[in-house]
Amino acid sequence: QPLQYFDRYLLNHLVYGARRMTKFVGARDEAGSLKLREGIAMIGNVTAGMNAVIGGHARCSRSDQVDHGRKVFYFDIAYGSNKKMCQSYHGRENAIEIPFEEDFLPMLQNIQVDLGNRRMNDSDPDSAEVFLKALEAAIYNASNSISKSSLEGSLLVLDHITSNTAIHMPISTIAKHAKEKYGMIVAVDGAHGLLSLPLDMPNLLSAGTNSHNNAANEGYVDIYLTNAHKWFSSPRGAALLFCTNPFLRETILRQPAVVSHGIDDGFLSRFLWDGCRDYTAQLSLPVIADFWEQMEVGVVRKEMQYNLLEGVRILISHWHPGKCRDHGDDADAECVQRYSAEAGVTLVPIGLHAPNMVLVRLPDRISKSQDSERKTSTDAKDVQDYLYSRKVEVPVKCIRGM
Q1: What is the 3 state secondary structure string of the chain?
Q2: Which of 122, 173, 331, 399 is the most exposed place for a label (fewest CB within 10 A)?
Q3: What is the pLDDT of residues 222-259, one digit of tens each?
């Protein structure tokens, strides 16, 4: 009886799924569980959630529901659709792009991060210093049109793992700086975060309404979104939105991308009931979480990291023989981990890349121009299309003209 199921049983199952996922992302005690239960929403995908976040900030800034801030800041290495959202909702004059790829990304090449503790990447001081230099430079360059006081309430959009460059951003340190110095609201696109990273939401998220004075056991991220269909391996159509700040839930997040029957029934319902859709993906989350915990999530992450490192080693050995040497052995795992970025064959050191994605430079005869012209995204697409014609489908990116 479908009507009976939708009207009387479905919500209970979805609520159970939401609560089960709070445990998967770090709710270990009653206080942490309660904090996340009130601040979790189940959505179809991160893009829909980011539309609610960025669109909500633009709407509230126009109606003075957030203090002062009319601006939204984002790095130029951010996910492409997020950049378009910022420009569309806020207008180009209020959407401030932070240049990073050309001048600041090369500064990451000599930074080493321990592969064994991925959670420390969120607050790594050395990589954070580079990102903060870029943020400060963007604010300084825009200082003729904005004042420091007017930045309070502005939105800063971060990617936990960048899509095109596969960099693990130090979101905790960046968020702390942005909130303490400027009073910014920080939203993180964590599309690749669920399972691949050891998320600890109770300590990552801020619950305070005062952006300058977070409690000692709180983080500095205001809003975090993550997809379940990527590394968590659910069916497509399941994602999570976290916000433990009640004020932001009732202002910026008051209106989802699709307004329907749940709009006035609380945070979870306003995002759940958005028209007729298939809830199979959301209903599957508890079973998938049980599976990963039975497999031991820490062991799974280590295996993913090992396989990634081995894949990078194989590619470097074939594409760049002799470029990465250690004690006479060509491209062994330790050499790849320590010297691949310095040798110019990975974009940044392995420890700064995502735990399951790395950019490895194609062989010189393909990746480098014979003349002074830089490679373009069109060249990258040509290579990707050629590989597809040979029954290989893999993303090919052009970064800094290579």
Answers
A1: CHHHHHHHHHHHHHHHHHHHHHHHCCCCCHHHHHHHHCCEEEECCHHHHHHHHHHHHHHHHHCCCCCCCCCEEEECCCCHHHHHHHHHHHCCCCEEEECCCCCCHHHHCCCCCCCCCHHHHHHCHHHHHHHHHHHHHHHHHCCCCCCCHHHCCCEEEEECECCCCCEECCHHHHHHHHHHHHCCEEEEECCCCCCCCCCCHHHHECCCCCCCCCCCCCCCECEEEEECCCCCCCCCCCEEEECCCHHHHCCCCCCCCCCCHHHHCCHHHHHHCCCCCCCHHHHHHHHHHHHHHHCCHHHHHHHHHHHHHHHHHHHHHHHCCCCCEECCEECCHHHHHHHCCCCCCECCCHHHEECCECCECCCHHHHCCCCCCCCCHHHHHHHHHHHHHCCCCCCCCCCCCC
A2: 399
A3: 999 999 999 999 999 999 999 999 999 999 999 999 99
